[in-house]
Structure prediction request, 248 residues.
Amino acid sequence: MLQSFQIIGYSGGVPTQDRGVTCVMVSTTNYDVMIDCGEGSYLRWQKAGYKWKNLKYILITHMHPDHIGGLIPLLFYRKLFGIDSLLTLIGPPQLKEYFEDCYRHSGLSNNQDLQWIDISTNNQINFQNDIHINTMEMKHKIPCWGYRISDSGKNLVFITDTLPNANAVKLSENADVLIHEATFTHNMREKAKKHFHTTEIQAMEIADKAKVKRLILTHFSQRLTDRDVQEWIWNGKSCIVFDERVEI
Prediction:
């Protein structure tokens, strides 16, 4: 069963002293799922108290550095610690080749039990203990996917790095939690459009159309202060949780 989520990296594009780039943890009754692994995710993941033995799946939305920059280090540290349990990595078709190239050019051999799933050809995946994944492609500068994680009664959706689009609404329909990017404020919507991103108002409109129960915003430009984003309210609730662990 789905239990909680925690956004351990919520900066868009560039990390700051206080904000890591994208990484979200979703905890089930039996294991943890990581979504994206930006630079520095390992230390934030460790500081938040997560354990190697519980990390069973990593989902990658797309291949931009602020979403995968911490993946090779994480897998390298996992190798050094001798973790031998199966880890399944799900993401764009280039993901496995990216890993293999990095290891080869670094002179490393892989002795980990890794399974790779190409999300472009597998948009519905069943995890252990009746957890299900549905994905849909978003609209970004490069191929990018949103993820819906479901059990028998609850649904969490994660969408980042995209223009507003019909797939975002469809994937999010009636979700208990929608975590959506809000890189720019709405007065910068032309800049958001140019860079294939979403504003806070546009994310709220998607949440309205999809009839979600709770909207959480993330992936903030470094131009936005904590005080700026803490003013964002949707359906009477704050859209901001920063790195707090939240029950689903």
